[in-house]
Every structure is written in C-alpha cells, then in structure tokens.
Design brief:
286 residues; alpha+beta; Rieske Iron-sulfur Protein; 2 domains; six-stranded antiparallel sheet; four-stranded antiparallel sheet; 7 helices
Length: 286
C-alpha cells in the first residue's frame, strides 16, 4: 500500500500541467501577503513556529469528533455534532490562509503537490458546509454521510501535508542538523570583507556568512532556516538585516532573529573576534 501511494504522489509531482494553475495562484497569494505584517502574521513569526500546522488540528479535530458523535451518540449527539461541524468550518478560514501563505513560497513538484493538498481540503470544506446545512434543515442522515466523506478527504489531504513536511522538508528548520563548532576557527582575512557585502566561509564544515556592517563584523549560519537558501547571496539593508534571496526572509545580523517571514526560526548566530587581521568565529554561547 505505501508503494502505491508513493507512486500516486510521484505522479502528482511530475504533472507539470498543474503549473499553469499553481503558478498564477501562488503569484496572487504572494501579492496579498507582500506586506511584512501580513506575512509575519500568517507565517507565525510572532509564534516562533510555523502557524499552519498548529491550526490544522482544529478543523480536523472538530470534524473528527463530529463523526465520532454521529457513530456513537445518534440523535442524542446530533446538536453537538452540528456545532462541531460549524466550528470546524470557522477554523478553516485562518487555517487555509496560513497554508496558502506557506504554499506560495514553494516551487516545482512541491508546489504541485501542495496545490492538490489544497484542492482536497477545499472539497472537504464544501462537503462539511453541505453537511452543516443538511443537519440544520433536519436531514441528519445526509449530513452524517457528507461529513464522513468530507473527513475522508481531509485525511487524504493530511497525508499529503505530512509528505510535504516530513519527506519534502517544507517548513522544517534547515539548520537543525548542523553541528557548529564551539572552538574559535579562523575563517577569513579581515581585508576580504567589504561593507554590507556578504561573504560565505566554512567553519568546521558549517557554512557561515560574514557581514561587515557599521564597522563591526557579524556572522550567521549561511543556510536559511526556512528553505535552505544561501544567505551569502542575499542583500543587507540599512537596518542591519540580511535578506534571503529565495523567499525574502529577513534576519537581524546582531542575533539572527527573524524580522520578516516566511522564516519563523531564528538564524543560528556566531561569535566573532578579530586577531591579527584574521576573522575567527565560534558558535554563540559555546
């Protein structure tokens, strides 16, 4: 069974015909989420963790419990089940908004799979809405069936969502498995640094980006926590932040904190010292 599902997922990822739809939809979402406040709110910068996975538990849980009541409580649980279906529908709004924001920053096969993930969720939401109306108008049996089918689609969509996260690595911290050295490591000559021009160096096998800003030298891990983008190819702004060239995530050079999503995890920062015109770094708080 897992092999069959794997083949289906691979087929979806290979269908370049989906790009015509996903590309336009992603462009629209990116326009809507362009303001920093909007992107940060939807990404979960304020939470320090991706917001979408947290919210998905609410509609899934509500609809799952509604079906459980349908199966075990009968007419006695009809009113509570209807309320749970309705609550799940309300929770879909922020859940879908955060998911769309995250999805718009993906590309290629991952974006295609994410599109199908969203389409399944949309179909499930329509069925749950029809279920709520059916229950409200006294057609409980039809409502039960609609909810059950909708929950099945939600389960299939959740499987794709898990694949996106745990197989494709969407939303994971791309520096999680780095092993920064705690020893001072010589990485560059001070003369190699030009004001506000990032320089990629190697510190014991970990890529690090050096930036000379305002006369001081700062260092962060060079792999963007959001999607693995090369920060050394990004730009430094006047506020002392470096921007990832892939999706625009911004991090403070002073401590690696996120100032703009889609990244939600701070960039690992490094201590810096200058000795005999050489730049040495070590993992912060080593």
């Amino acid at each position: 069974m897992p092999k069959q599902i794997e083949h289906v997922i691979q087929d979806i990822e290979d269908r370049s015909a989906l790009d015509a739809v996903s590309g336009k939809a992603a462009a629209l979402v990116n326009r809507v989420t362009q303001p920093t406040a909007v992107k940060n709110a939807l990404s979960g910068v304020w939470l320090g963790h991706a917001l979408h996975p947290v919210l998905t538990d609410i509609p899934i849980g509500a609809w799952g419990m509604a079906t459980l009541l349908d199966l075990t409580a009968g007419e006695r649980g009809a009113r509570a089940a209807r309320r749970l279906v309705g609550f799940g529908l309300l929770a879909v709004v922020p859940t879908a908004a955060t998911g769309a924001s995250d999805w718009a920053d993906t590309i290629g096969p991952t974006q295609r799979l994410g599109l199908v993930h969203g389409m399944l969720n949309s179909a499930a939401t329509v069925l749950q809405a029809a279920s709520w109306v059916s229950r409200l108008t006294g057609r409980r049996r039809a409502g039960v069936v609609l909810s059950g089918v909708g929950l099945g689609l939600t389960g299939a969509s959740a499987y794709l969502g898990g694949h996106l996260s745990y197989v494709n690595g969407v939303g994971v911290n791309h520096t999680a498995f780095e092993e920064p050295t705690g020893k001072w490591t010589d990485v560059a000559a001070l003369t190699a640094l030009v004001e506000d021009k990032p320089l990629r160096v190697d510190a014991g096998g970990v890529p690090v980006v050096l930036v000379r800003h305002g006369g001081a030298v700062k260092a962060l891990s060079a792999t963007c926590t959001h999607a693995g983008g090369p920060l050394d190819e990004g730009k430094v702004d006047a506020d002392g932040c470096i921007h990832c060239p892939w999706h625009g995530s911004a991090f403070r050079l002073s401590d690696g904190e996120v100032t703009r999503g889609p990244a939600t995890v701070a960039q690992p920062d490094w201590d810096v010292k200058i000795s005999q015109d050489r730049v040495l770094v070590r993992a912060a708080n080593a």
